[in-house]
Structure formats: structure tokens, C-alpha cells
Write a structure and sequence with these properties.
The structure holds 2 protein chains of 2 kinds. Chain A is of the alpha+beta class. Chain A is 31% helix and 28% strand. Chain A contains 3 helices and 5 strands, in the order βααββαββ. In chain A, helix 1 packs antiparallel against helix 2 and helix 2 packs antiparallel against helix 3. The radius of gyration of chain A is 16 Å and the shape is globular. Chain B is an alpha/beta fold. Chain B is built from 4 helices and 5 strands, in the order E-E-H-E-H-E-H-E-H. The chains are: A alpha+beta, B alpha/beta.
Chain lengths: 142, 111
Amino acid sequence: MASEQICYQISVPSRLESLAAVSEFVAQTGQTLGLEPEQTHRLQLAADEACTNLILHGQVAESHGERMITLDLCRTRDRCILTLRDHGRPFDLTALPAPRLKTDLRRRRPGGLGVYLIRTLMDEVTYRSEDGVNTLTMIKRL
Amino acid sequence: MELLTQRFKRADLIRVHGRIDASTAPRLEAALRSIIAEGRFKIVLDLSETDYISSAGIKVLVIIQKEVRRWNRGELKLSGLRDQVKETLDMVGLMPLFATYDTALEAVGSF
């Protein structure tokens, strides 16, 4: 039997002020989809970190109107799928090197933690840039 | 996010209400820096009213900890960590970098 998929979607302007709305959407949707609060919190964090990266690194020089980010949160029987789409400059966060977490505080360079969190929180992360649309798909097995 | 700053003899306390993400973290950093700018390096950050911190907030904690610990002049301590915040700090391996306390007053008293 093909696994049934239930999806919810939100579109927000590509600015940092939208992060609270993204988080609220994931919290409410997580509850609607019957996820455990801990699972929902992890999805919130992954969505937040991914949006932050798109907003900060996907800026386009010449802006024609406001750029938007579309987020889909879907659930099948055994997995949750977060999909982010935008039309910004392609930014493949899956290609970034992992931060060196063991480094002593005095030598630790800030940053890189967001991508590390996404990789830790999610089971599969894939990125595709095609016809001006960037798609980041993050899967969490339940 | 709202910030409430209190000055004690031993340390300065900032109570955070609300989420710390990339849009609010710069305000938290500014508040912490304004304490440092006054030559005060013993700081408690109370997170009992915060159920969410992203890497942007964690980055601020690391930067400030580096700054206040320089020449052993002080420390940034955390209090009232909720499970979600603790889990996030744990995931990036940063819990050992911070002394944590159940309440803000315990943390202030520890200086």
C-alpha cells in the first residue's frame, strides 16, 4: 500500500523576522500531525536553522519585489519531511564542512553550528537547485 | 524576546523572556556587551522563560563566554535551563562550557 502523505504549507517573506512565524507553523502543524513535543521541537529547530541560512546566504543583489520562502511539512506513516523552496542565490548547505566541535573554547570559531544541528537533527538532507528554484529537503524517520 | 537586566553586587543578571533566534540574538548580544562595556564580567543569563534557542543564540553565548573569561576576569553562567534548551546545547557539545544552576539567585550567589 502506498503510504499516505498529509502536508501543510506556509509561505513567508525571506527575512529574519519571519523565523517566529515559521517556528509557530511547525509547532502547530506538529501537534496537528500527532507528533511528540520533542519531535516537534527538533523539526522547529531544523526549519529555523535552514530558513536562517537561506535568508542570510541566499540574498540576491537586485531584488524584484519581496523574495519568499515556502515551507512544507509532511507526514507519512513513518517519516516527517520538511521541504524549503526559495528563489534566492543557490546556497547548498549540505556541501559545507562540519564545524570542529571538540575545539577548545579559546580556539573555537563561531558559526557553522546551524548546519551541524540540521545534520544531527535530521536523517536525510538533500539540496537541489533547478530552473531558479532551490529546494532543500530534510527527512526525519519516526 | 524581552530582556530584563538586574545589577547585583556580585554579578549582573539578564532574564530572557521568549525565543532566541537569528532575529532576536543580536539584541541579546548587545545587552551582554553593554554590561561588559561597563567593565563588569560576571554575568548570569537566566533562561527559565526561554523554551527555544537556535544556533544564532548559542553563537552569542560562546562569543560572550570567550570575552568575559579573558584574563580570568569573569564568567557567563546560565540558570533555569529548560529541557529543549538543554537538549540543543547538548547536541552541539556546549553544555560543558557553561556552569548551570537551577535558579538565577543560586547562579548570582555562586560568584
